[in-house]
Structures are given as structure tokens and as C-alpha cells.
Amino acid sequence: MGSSRPGDPASVKQLFEAIAPRYDLLNDLLSLGLHRIWKREAILWLNPEPGQRLLDLCCGTGDLALVLAQKVRPGGHVLGMDVAAAPLRLALQRSARQPWLPLGWQRGDALATGLAEASFDGAVIAYGLRNLSDAAAGLAELHRLLRPGARAAVLDFNRPPAASKTAFLQRQYLRRLVVPTARLFGLPDQYAYLEQSLLRFPSGPEQERLAAAAGFSHARHRLLAAGQMGILQLVA
Ligand SMILES: C[S@@+](CC[C@H](N)C(=O)[O-])C[C@H]1O[C@@H](n2cnc3c(N)ncnc32)[C@H](O)[C@@H]1O
Prior knowledge:
The protein has 8 helices and 7 strands. It is of the alpha/beta class. It has one domain: Vaccinia Virus protein VP39 (Rossmann fold), CATH 3.40.50.150. It has a 7-stranded mixed β-sheet, sandwiched between helices. Strand 1, helix 3 and strand 2 form a beta-alpha-beta unit. The N and C termini lie far apart (about 40 Å). The structure holds S-adenosylmethionine.
């Protein structure tokens, strides 16, 4: 596959179909397992409770949905939605090993989910917003799906100011560690996409403004991992 084009839905979908079999392993290798801690931060903000209906948008292989499904028992339900079939197949395999979890998976576009308005008590998007063709539209759809007062967490790479030391370190990490490691798995172009996708990703303060414009009553972008990652904490 040639290089992927950030913002082009077909190209992005194709990328995630291609990397799905290696996605979880590379996530663990490239973050030294730290992505689990950052995902835990998203769950802490969401503060899931038994009985709730929660949504994991751009769920991929289902890391967050699987944890959330434990927390909403009894009486709750979690839906994981992703546009690509390959990661969803892996998510389904994982949840089949825990058939007691109240969990469903659905193919769908985060920009036009087709789900009912105000039908969720909370939602997460991890490393998904950056991949959408329109982040503002993604936040608007997220807001539409949440009941008033519901919380959401949007976890992703942070986009630091281009001339900052944090941005320099991020470029070094992406170019000298991420792409060479992905090359070992035959996926250098797919992981070079990460840096490209960050160039068009809104900064934390921009995300806060977009979320307010989408109707969220509270929007705070918190830095994680010395500014390499960020979490947008939202209340609908
Ligand atoms: C980097 S992965 C993140 C997966 C998972 N949330 C995690 O944190 O491990 C991004 C996911 O977003 C999905 N995605 C990209 N564009 C999407 C869209 N328009 N609607 C729904 N999912 C989308 C991809 O298929 C991919 O599985």
C-alpha cells in the first residue's frame, strides 16, 4: 500500500484494515505499554457506573469498550463502533472470550453514526478524532449522541506548538522509533501517517474551542506524558 492520506476517509479506512493484525502488538511496543495508562485516564474521567449505556467510537480492536463493559455491569451496555471491518473482527474475537460482557460491535462512521440522539450516558474516542476528515463534525456527532450532562473523553496524541521542544521530541520519536519499528513489520508507510495526521490535528486549545462550538458545556484539554498525549475532557 502507498502512503496514506490523512483526511481522506477511504485511505484512512484502508490503512486501519491493513494494520489491524499488528495493531495491538505495535501499540504495546511503541508506547512500552503506556497506552494502557493513558486509556485508564480516559476511563477515570468518564467515571462509568453500573447500568449506564456507553459508546466507544473509533473503537478499533476494542481496548476501551472491553474495560467499560466490565464497569457498566449489571444492567448497562457498551457499543463499540468502527468504520473498518478488520479491527472489529479482532474486537469480536476478544469479547467472545468474555461472553458475559454486555457489549456489542457495529460498523459505522463516527461522522454519521446513524445512532439515536441523546442515547448514551458517556462516550470515549481514543486515537480516533485525529483520523476523521473533520474533527469539528466528529465532536458535533459525539455531542448529539450524549444525554445532557453526560461525560466524554477524547484521547489522542497532543499537537504541541511546532517550534517547541515537545514537538521536536515527538518528531524524533515518530521518525526514529515508530517508523523504523513499523518497518520491521512491513508497515513503515502506515505508521509514517501518524506524523502526517498530526499536522492537521487541532491543538488542545483549538479542541476546547471546537468542543464548545459543538455544544459541550465543559471542555478541558489535559496534557499527558509530558505533553506528548492529550485528553479532551467533555461534559455534554
Ligand atoms: C488508531 S485506531 C484507535 C483504536 C482504539 N480506539 C484504540 O485506542 O486502540 C483508530 C481507529 O479509528 C477508526 N476510524 C477511522 N476513521 C473512522 C470513522 N470515520 N468512523 C469510525 N471509525 C473510524 C479506524 O478504523 C481505527 O480502528
